[in-house]
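Posting this for the archive.
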Amino acid sequence: MTHLNEGDRAPAFSAKDQNGKKVSLKDFKGQKVVLYFYPADDTPVCTVEACNFRDNNAQLQKLGYQVLGVSPQGEESHKKFEQKYKLPFPLLQDEDMKIINAYGVWGPKVLYGRKYDGIHRLTFVIDEKGVIEKIVRKVLSKKATEQVLK
């Protein structure tokens, strides 16, 4: 799991989104960022989480938050996911796993007794100055926005 803690400076990053546009953490200085990591586009739990952020995006923006999703898929996969579910926020391509590793969300997992390495579903709330304000370590996909706002 992540080596980061609340109060730590959020690791800087830069990556392309689903439209090939470069997105960096520094682009959001002065805004709060909801940086959520998810294993894969268009899978059941990941879709529920993305749609929860979609359905609450207007409220989050009104409160000064910008949502950014991160997974290891590329532009084509992210674009299909965005279009299929009308997602109104950037999905960052992290095929080289630089952001995933910087935030420490890659590691051992167990599913049905099978051990493997994968992405841990974590959400980081980053304040206007680039400091991690909150880490949601046990994400409930249907309540993702509610967990961010608590």
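DSSP finds five helices and nine strands in the chain. Strands lie at 14-16, 22-24, 32-37, 65-71, 91-93, 106-111, 114-119, 123-126, 132-136.
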